[in-house]
Amino acid sequence: MFSIPLFPLNTVLFPGLPLRLNIFEPRYKQMIKRCLETGEKFGIVLIKRGREALGPLADPFLIGCTAQLVQVDPASDERYDITAIGRERFRILSLDRTTFPYLSGTVEMFPFSEQDQTTIQSAAQPLRLWVKRYFDALAEATNTQMDSRYIPNEPMGLAFLATYLLQIPPTEKQTILEMEHTVQLLDAVVALYRREVALIKRLGRDEGKSQRGFWLN
Does one domain contain both 102 and 122? Predict the structure, then answer.
């Protein structure tokens, strides 16, 4: 167990993925200054109730991801433009709303339950195919080029990036972040991609029908 500053946001951070923020509130500028001085990480947590900024401290979901600062650019108006990288999942055990102007908490790491690597690799194979289908469907729907060559081979890197890329509500991404078993997570992301690919194709067909109807009229 350890204590960590917490940053409630309307976004979900995954291990290995970047997060860019513009820090303007005094309480969060103080938090970033603390992390710069000590080198410690802070925690990104999805807001369950409340607002991101300019109000009372929000109530977060209990599973989050640690973030490590990799770049901090002070702006001329006393703001910070920061880039952080997600590191490890954690579970909040208790919250502290009084010691600092920002939220902090006592947390523990939230690793995945161990599973056979062969089983994990097998579960990841369908996801690679569905991510490629998603890219192909988006490319067809938007007439743009989508490059799938840089999809990670490592199963969890693949799963987290795949979830990050989807345009779905943050609460659905939070559900993925909270899963305890690797294979369960991979299967859940595949199910999301099946749904999203079908939706993109259906929207593309509907748009094509409306365009044909326009010309026929």
Answer: no
**pLDDT tens by residue, 160-184:** 999 999 999 999 999 999 999 999 9
Residues 161, 31: Cα–Cα separation, whole Å: 27
Are 123 and 183 within 8 A, CB to CB? Answer: yes
Cα 39 to Cα 99, 114, 130: the distances in Å are 20, 30, 39
Q: Are strands 2-9 and 42-49 parallel, antiparallel or unpaired?
A: parallel
Under the phi-then-psi rule, with left for phi > 0, alpha for psi from -120 to 50, and beta for the rest, what region is 203?
A: alpha
Sign of CA dihedral 65, 71, 75, 78: positive
Compute CA distances 22 → 80, 85, 94, 100, 144, whole Å.
6, 15, 27, 20, 29
- The parent domain of residue 152 ranges over 117-216
Cα separation, 207 vs 202, in Å, equals 9
- pLDDT greater at residue 88 or residue 140: 88
Q: Of 87, 109, 131, which one is at a domain's C-terminal end?
A: 109
Q: Are 98 and 121 in the same domain? A: no
Identify the CATH number of the domain in which residue 73 sits.
2.30.130.40
What is the reported pTM?
Answer: 0.87
Torsion angle in degrees (nearest 10) through CA of 52, 57, 58, 63? 100
